[in-house]
Amino acid sequence: MTANRNEIPYKIYLTEDEMPKQYYNVRADMKEKPAPLLNPATHQPMTAEELEHVFCRELVEQELDNDTAYFDIPQEIRDFYKMYRPSPLVRAYCLEKKLGTPAHIYYKFEGNNTSGSHKLNSAIAQAYYAKKQGLTGVTTETGAGQWGTALSMACAYLGLDLKVFMVKVSYEQKPFRREVMRTYGASVTPSPSETTEVGREILKAHPGTTGSLGCAISEAVEVATSTPGYRYVLGSVLNQVVLHQSIIGLETKAALDKYGVTPDIIIGCAGGGSNLGGLISPFAGEMLRGEKDYRIIAVEPASCPSLTRGKYLYDFCDTGEVCPLAKMYTLGSQFIPSPNHAGGLRFHGMSPIVSELHHQGIIEARAYEQTEVFQAAEDFARCEGILPAPESSHAIKAAMDEALKCKETGEAKNIVFGLTGTGYFDLTAYQQFNDGTMTDYIPTDEELQEGFNAIPQFPGNEI
Amino acid sequence: MTANRNEIPYKIYLTEDEMPKQYYNVRADMKEKPAPLLNPATHQPMTAEELEHVFCRELVEQELDNDTAYFDIPQEIRDFYKMYRPSPLVRAYCLEKKLGTPAHIYYKFEGNNTSGSHKLNSAIAQAYYAKKQGLTGVTTETGAGQWGTALSMACAYLGLDLKVFMVKVSYEQKPFRREVMRTYGASVTPSPSETTEVGREILKAHPGTTGSLGCAISEAVEVATSTPGYRYVLGSVLNQVVLHQSIIGLETKAALDKYGVTPDIIIGCAGGGSNLGGLISPFAGEMLRGEKDYRIIAVEPASCPSLTRGKYLYDFCDTGEVCPLAKMYTLGSQFIPSPNHAGGLRFHGMSPIVSELHHQGIIEARAYEQTEVFQAAEDFARCEGILPAPESSHAIKAAMDEALKCKETGEAKNIVFGLTGTGYFDLTAYQQFNDGTMTDYIPTDEELQEGFNAIPQFPGNEI
């Protein structure tokens, strides 16, 4: 179902009045709920009390609530959203023309803010609840730096202190991201550092290490739990994050509804799952309630194929094995993906919500190799103008493939994908692609098996 | 005159139907016209024929036409504009709150496109007319890279070849900008190069040179005039560019009119003058026709003070002295401003249109030093979210100062400024500011006099 082509503008903007006033919790419509987080010592579900040592109170409530369908978005958060939202739902007229497809392609563009991605949607929510609880600051880790940047913007706005542990190799190789965070007033420490016990231990054991996300998480959690008035916040994977990111899907649905467009296919890239989970939440909800049927496609890199080749088991979320266990599609917390420029998709696991929806058949999954993704990114940039982030380009590649299938069949399907961010800080990767020196790598079954072997084994959680 | 505060959204977006369909040529409403370009050899006005060796035909017509008030924007250009325009007119609620000012502050944000600035508005127009003329390619120079990026996007869209000569020091220090251009298919050559006669001469004379804009212009012009089917295009200063950039001002005025807001003060940063000229064109037109009265403020860096301390004389536009003479406020074509991170404001001269409007008292001018501008940028980023370009931050500083004056007087003035772009590729500068190592420099009268001494002297053009 599509409105007249000419009636649909290049960019659909909701008015401020039309912006969502509530987050939507897709768990409320799932008969089989995502599995709860487990205490790694006892293998019992984490209690609110246990979680509140690490996370803010209201965020813990959101994390554990599988039943409430809608959560009001506080006015302060809505005011912040108005600075960079609603994000446009773009009709990709130029891409359609370039492909010669009868398909109608739409993308929800989340890159029009200084953090350059959708991460800001959850950053402001998490910072808000921390501030409301009377905390003085939060800690977090960041790899490529999108999450750290988003959180630094949110904390600057609310007047909250922020300590970021940035993976040392990124701290040195991505000085621009680091400087954005500093400009927004965050303190940025290369990880591992001498400022934490766990950091000192790691440095003693591995003097030359350039760090890892797992290590940075451990340092951030140590500082959060040992500093009065501090808590730790996380940018993906968690249920609360998918809840906040539902604003992407709600706006997308409202914009499509405004023009009477029903999508046939909805596509998102999947790393930790926060963008994909948010984008598809309201559509998956309709499927779960039996009201509608869509094809939902998660796209991941072939070098880190958690959904397409992983195991659906309880596993650690971090390499350091300090966090609770989550049931998810995982490659094992010790799996180190080969270098891939889509840093945001290099997580070994997947959001429990997205994992369970995939397990139930609501979400299908596919994987692409790096160079074909960059070719799609370049084609897209040259006709649609926007230089996409490598992560987002996985969704672009899938959307283009589906549109080309429509060209063969003559079907005028409506394809919607999430363009999560811009690639302004990923130009080292584009340079490799431009120079023809980019390579692909697909892990062998043996390499994956090695990763699976590190998954904790306990009754009901055998490989 | 202001509508109820609560009626005005954070961001005013025009609909596609409301977007301007014509450019406005402010020269048509000027009784005293900007002085014509002169042939540097004869000191006679450049003819269309002379200019057409270098520039595209229709652009030459636009360049020379002082009488036609409106030029239709071709449908193809309007379609391209729809990909990233209308740009939002943002009500700076958060900045107002932070300053505690009764003033209402608005900014027209031109940074939401991959080139990161307003340059794209003229790039697509110039590429379109080149394509329409049946040319196969264009050449240009770029310093910091915003113009080159914008032009590469426009040429990729239209299927036009592009050869960019990039100042060698920028080519090496700003590899990211270079890679964006390459991703859009442009060939990028560090200047001076061995590929042109003028480049080889310069390299022979100055073997270790890191290049200059003047040299890059000379190389680009040589290639354009010696390659069949090629012309040269320029991103600022020229009348045609101010004409294209009038879309900024027309959209701004339409958005303000929609909410019944009349600005009291309009502020823009001024380098070559294209953004400022475009932003203020429709407002200056009302002043010239005696319909309205506004305060219009041009803001420049104290290190390159063409409007506030320059001479209003005919001068070369380029250091290489190959281009026509333009009458403008100038510091002399040999003036080398001290290092200043607002690369886009380091031009020794000023658009003839802006110069003449300043001469007539329509535009006032002021200059700020670098560190106070970056302080304003940081303050702005922390409350409004957007990380501004150093150039744009000059306008931010002036808007904040005017808003603080309103705080003293209690006046609820409407202040509008142009936020020309984002600072994602300027983080080396932000790092200097964050580290406290940024310095200011104001040229002495003696240094300025040295620059003035190189201005060509002929009857009627004496210092």
From TrEMBL, chains A, B:
<dbReference type="Pfam" id="PF00291">
    <property type="entry name" value="PALP"/>
</dbReference>
<dbReference type="InterPro" id="IPR001926">
    <property type="entry name" value="TrpB-like_PALP"/>
</dbReference>
<keyword id="KW-0822">Tryptophan biosynthesis</keyword>
<dbReference type="InterPro" id="IPR036052">
    <property type="entry name" value="TrpB-like_PALP_sf"/>
</dbReference>
<comment type="similarity">
    <text>Belongs to the TrpB family.</text>
</comment>
<comment type="pathway">
    <text>Amino-acid biosynthesis; L-tryptophan biosynthesis; L-tryptophan from chorismate: step 5/5.</text>
</comment>
<keyword id="KW-0456">Lyase</keyword>
<dbReference type="GO" id="GO:0030170">
    <property type="term" value="F:pyridoxal phosphate binding"/>
</dbReference>
<protein>
    <recommendedName>
        <fullName>tryptophan synthase</fullName>
        <ecNumber>4.2.1.20</ecNumber>
    </recommendedName>
</protein>
<dbReference type="InterPro" id="IPR023026">
    <property type="entry name" value="Trp_synth_beta/beta-like"/>
</dbReference>
<dbReference type="InterPro" id="IPR006316">
    <property type="entry name" value="Trp_synth_b-like"/>
</dbReference>
<dbReference type="GO" id="GO:0004834">
    <property type="term" value="F:tryptophan synthase activity"/>
</dbReference>
<dbReference type="GO" id="GO:0052684">
    <property type="term" value="F:L-serine hydro-lyase (adding indole, L-tryptophan-forming) activity"/>
</dbReference>
<comment type="function">
    <text>The beta subunit is responsible for the synthesis of L-tryptophan from indole and L-serine.</text>
</comment>
<keyword id="KW-0663">Pyridoxal phosphate</keyword>
<feature type="domain" description="Tryptophan synthase beta chain-like PALP">
    <location>
        <begin position="84"/>
        <end position="421"/>
    </location>
</feature>
<dbReference type="GO" id="GO:0005737">
    <property type="term" value="C:cytoplasm"/>
</dbReference>
<comment type="subunit">
    <text>Tetramer of two alpha and two beta chains.</text>
</comment>
<keyword id="KW-0057">Aromatic amino acid biosynthesis</keyword>
<keyword id="KW-0028">Amino-acid biosynthesis</keyword>
